[in-house]
Amino acid sequence: MGQLSHHEIVQLLLSLAVLLGAARILGELARRLRQPAVIGELLAGVMLGPTVLGKLWPAANATLFPTEGAVSVAMHGFTVIAITLFLLVAGMEVDLSTIWKRRIAAFSVGIGGMVVPFVMAFAVAWFAPSLLGAKSESPTLVFALFIGTAMAISALPVVAKMLMDLQLFRTDVGMTIIAAAVFNDLAGWMIFAVVLAMIGQASSSGLEVWQSILVTVLFVVFMLTIARWLLDRVLPWIQAHLSWPGGMLGFSLVMGILCAAFTEWIGVHAVFGAFMFGVALGDSRHLRASTRETIDQFISFIFAPLFFASVGLRVNFFEHFDLGLVLIVLALATVGKLLGCVLSARMARFPRREAWAIGFGMNARGAMEIILGLLAFEAGIIDARLFVALVIMALVTSMTSGSLMQWVMGRTEQVRFWAFAGPKLFVPRLDSTDRFDAIRELARVVGGESRIDAIAGSAVSRERLLGSGIGGGVAVPHARLEDITEPIVAVGISRVGIDFDARDGHPARIIILLVTPASDARVQLQLLASVAAVCRDAQTVERLALVGSWTEFLAVLNVDAAAARST
Amino acid sequence: MSEQSAVFVRILACIAHSPGAERLARQAIGLAQACGAELTFLHVGSDRKPLESLIASVIAESSLEKTPELLDRVGRADRIILHEARRIGADLILAGALGVDPMLRELWGSTSRRLARRFTKSVWLTVHRGLPQEMARRIVAVAQLDAASSAMVRDVAELARRLRCEQMHIVYEYDPYLIGVTEATGTQGADSEEYERMADAAARLGLSNFLEGFDFSGVQVKAEPLAGKNLVEASQYARFVKADLVVIAAPIRRMGFLDRFFRHPAETVMLDMPCSVLFHRVRSAERRG
């Protein structure tokens, strides 16, 4: 006793390997399908858990993922560490100055996204507890408070992962969602601490509820002021005197876990401490990008998939499944959250599209909901049917919110640069060997002799200040004109390559002159994105550089663009 | 000098008994000459005689038409400087940043930082760590592509022309995830290398658009977008190009605790001080306009 047996060690390592392997494979698959990787990782757990593997091959499921015993305890320990470390990374990505810039929106969405679903769910649970399958012996106030909290909470880890996967984390929308989710989580866990206290569950510290809340507030203030200041002074010393990246990685993990232990001790949740430490650490101007990247890679690709996959292992969805209850819970959670967040975001002057993206982003409940449900189930506040309904709601909202966000945000009209070009605007062999001459040569095909000075003048003066080489053998000089309403794009191929002062130092072989209306900055960016997307592949650029006519150029674009879409 | 294009009209130069006093006096006089500005020296403390003779000797070597006044006051330095600056209507305070020991600076604060935070017009903090007498051979102007930066770039270009600076760098530090690439193009899900390349191209485009229409005649200008945040990269860039002046557009208000708490970019540069720093604030007439 006191340590794992030889057999249990083998079993534990095998479980971890299978779980991590499946999570990584399905995560990558989801990414290939342009979905957040977290969806694949959650699905891996569902496949390996009691729902699928447990039904098809119960013995394998029981061997790999036992629900009790030393291996189960060790596995649980791993997943707690995994989610704690993932929240550390999520915290490091939080940009306080951005949140401050969006403070009104973040506060508004945080309040709206909390109050509306809480009030709606509380009212239903208070006036019609049987509709939600309340246990007759459970006090209605406690039950209603729990339901309100369960519907109001957002899953910070899932939201963070989804935003990172979608490259939306540090956008205005992303930062608003994160700031609002932090607020929701904080308030949600506070209310839940009150609920647990009402039924006699207390934190291991023995603190009263008001004391837990006070200590949490003091902890937040400490982390955002003194700890931030200290970290800013300690990091240069660590980076100068300890080995890299081991020293920095070790320091970050030790301190993150210590903070997690502290918040767990005061009864809030371990993830909250790690998250706050991550915020303080990530804010330091001395944290190098490479260090940040190392910590991020180490945790995001190892620990996070492990945790998200483990979520699916916890429940069997076939037993205690009640379709009616699942639909009611799902509707209550989604309608309340969307209503609260979308209205608040609109009031904070977000465009309609982004307001809906915020609503869908905040709707992800994920692991937090499952943890909350599990604690309530163990405390006897809810029965097994409601627990399963909450878990399904958490999974459905987590799995759909990323796709829905992507769908809403992705409905931008796709602009292709070649739609504004043509055979008359194509120069298969540029005579120029100098970038300014090349611009003039392309300006001539756009505007003829009469307008060459206006176009070339604008493009050349911009080029003198800042080279337009975007790397990979491509340059995108640009000019803006007041008197055009549609963009005009001229394409030139240089057989020898022309220096356009690109960051990678490579001479440009494909030169794409963008001439856009002065009043439309968005189309410039869209055309540029279209060029960057097509020319990201070196082989495509190589093929484009060898074409002899516009038709051949178009053929390469169409084939490669289709291939890129299919992958 | 034409009144219309004056960069600074009334300069208050704070001078003390320090190793950098002569350099500061030369710079203040050079700047006042270049801008056609009225110059006033302020000494906080007693014993003005040595400073009087120092200023007189520097003026003798210059072609300044009007001898600047030397004020001397006793009291807390930052309060007196701010009071005198407001009283004489200065639109620039020029002060030395002595580089006190970092630990002492954390404990007691720094007069120069307090000036930069509390004065609502421009503040030039000059360092003199082994630098030549010229004020600004290589200037790095940090633009944020907004109206305040626009006024700053225009003034710095004018200043660079008048001070005959060798090179003016205009850098735009952008956060790759906050420059609207995703929102404008619906490119979420792109791998990070592709995304960063696109963000860099978008930043170049944004900076090019921003710089259109400025008069850079007679000035050697190089523009550069830098991926980063809170001006950490801009500070590094200033060191890399051996700049002797960094100019940033500071908010036209007193900077307070929240600016420090949420790390206003001006605060980062103030803490880092890669070289002399000019906190540029738009003139009141333009603000009203």
Features:
heterodimer; A: 567 residues; mainly alpha; Na+/H+ antiporter like fold; Mannitol-specific EII, Chain A; 2 domains; six-stranded mixed sheet; 22 helices; 6 strands; 69% helix; 6% strand; elongated; B: 289 residues; alpha/beta; Rossmann fold; ten-stranded mixed sheet; 12 helices; 10 strands; 43% helix
Secondary structure layout plus pairing:
The complex is a heterodimer of chains A (567) and B (289).
Chain A: H1 6-32, H2 37-48, H3 53-56, H4 58-64, H5 70-92, H6 96-101, H7 103-127, H8 140-152, H9 156-165, H10 172-198, H11 209-241, H12 246-265, H13 270-282, H14 289-313, H15 323-347, H16 352-362, H17 366-378, H18 384-409, E1 426-427, H19 435-465, E2 469-471, E3 474-475, E4 478-481, E5 488-498, E6 508-517, H20 521-534, H21 538-545, H22 550-566
Parallel strand pairs in A: 1-5, 3-6, 4-6
Antiparallel strand pairs in A: 2-3, 5-6
Chain B: E1 10-14, H1 21-35, E2 38-44, H2 49-61, E3 69-73, H3 77-88, E4 92-96, H4 102-108, H5 111-118, E5 122-126, E6 138-143, H6 147-162, E7 167-174, H7 181-185, H8 192-211, E8 221-227, H9 232-240, E9 245-249, H10 257-261, H11 265-272, E10 276-280, H12 284-288
Parallel strand pairs in B: 1-2, 1-4, 2-3, 4-5, 6-7, 6-9, 7-8, 9-10
Antiparallel strand pairs in B: 5-10
Helix pairs in contact in B: 1-2, 3-5
Tell me what you see in this structure.
The complex is a heterodimer of chains A (about 575) and B (about 290). By secondary structure, chain A is mainly alpha-helical. Chain A is built from 22 helices and six strands. In chain A, strands 1, 2, 3, 4, 5 and 6 form a six-stranded mixed beta sheet that branches. Chain B has about 290 residues and is an alpha/beta fold. Chain B has twelve helices and ten strands. Chain B has helices spanning about 20-35, 50-60, 75-90, 100-110, 110-120, 145-160, 180-185, 190-210, 230-240, 255-260, 265-270, 285-289, and strands at about 10-15, 40-45, 70-75, 90-95, 120-125, 140-145, 165-175, 220-225, 245-250, 275-280. The longest helix of chain B has 20 residues, at about 190-210. The mean pLDDT of chain B is about 80. Classes of the chains: A mainly alpha (about 575), B alpha/beta (about 290). At the A-B interface, helix 6, helix 10, helix 19 and helix 20 of A face helix 7, helix 8, strand 8 and helix 11 of B.
